[in-house]
Amino acid sequence: MGIGRDIPTQFWSTAGKQPHNEQNEPFLVWLEAIAALSDSNLPLSMSVSYGDNEPGVDLTYANRVNVEFQKAGIRGTSIMFSSGDGGVAGGQSSSCTIFIPTFPASSPWVTSVGGTTGTKPEVCAKFSSGGFSNYFERPSYQDSAVKGYFASGASGMPSSSLYNATGAGIPDVSAQGENFDVIVNGFTEPVDGTSCSSPAFTGIIGLLNEARLAANKTSLGYLNQLIYKTAGPAGAFNDVTEGSNPGCGTQGFPATKGWDPVTGWGTPNYGKLKDIVMALP
């Protein structure tokens, strides 16, 4: 709300349980509630800070959720998800022997947001979850970016036996994720995590939608094709090239020039992004 100043904002809380694993989040219940809204009441951008380790989510359920993500995107809603706070260990697992992707951040039908910290240089936050899905194949729009990462020769690349190199890459983008002030019971305290990064990035998307609506254009909706085919290659994100996301007894993936499975394309440059989206129909 601080970044998307004066844009009408709602807080959604959805009760329910996920089939096959009652400890997981009720994403389908939430998405069906969105689907039932009229176009005039439909949120144009949403940020979600919750996620589950991908192996604990039933694949049939995940695919059903993906259908609803696609519907929302077509209707004009951009959906962002925090990538997670456990580095390559996903939901902060301490005993993993292979890297653990998170869902729904691993879905090709949402925009996953990793975390950064610092300035001059801005570096990846160590907790920023990222990697590759074991459920979903890499979408074609990611091909050039991901192949570029593997061909980069980045120092410290983890063993290919620890992850699925053909899976969808996580995250897509990133934003600052440390030292956000929140007020709890009247007291201000700093917090860290991609639960800060995702709403911060979503505030930028809210501003971009606001500019398009003022020009009698539609909202952006599903973002990933725009990010990978246009905005990323055009330098509309601040590239983050230092740091990694440790976990599972490794240093995780190293950040490097261009897209990487720690910070995605990097953090948003609002001015450049505005120029790009305002040039769209």
The biggest beta sheet, please? 5 strands, mixed
Seen as an oligomer or otherwise, the chain set is: single chain
Tally the helices: what do you get? 6
CATH architecture classification name: 3-Layer(aba) Sandwich
CATH first level: which class?
Alpha Beta
Question: How many domain modules?
Answer: 1
Low-pLDDT segments, ≥5 res: none
Give the overall average pLDDT. 96
Overall outline: globular
What is the CA-based Rg, rounded? 18 Å
Output the helix-strand order. Answer: HEEHEEEEEHEEEEHHEEH
Nutshell version of this structure?
The chain is 26% helix and 18% strand.
Model description:
26% of the residues lie in helices and 18% in strands. The chain has 281 residues and is of the alpha/beta class. The protein has a single domain (27-275), classed as Peptidase S8/S53 domain (Rossmann fold), CATH 3.40.50. Helix 1 packs parallel to helix 2 (59-75) and helix 4 crosses helix 6.
Please supply descriptive tags for the structure shown above:
single chain; 281 residues; alpha/beta; Rossmann fold; 5-stranded mixed β-sheet; two-stranded antiparallel sheet; globular
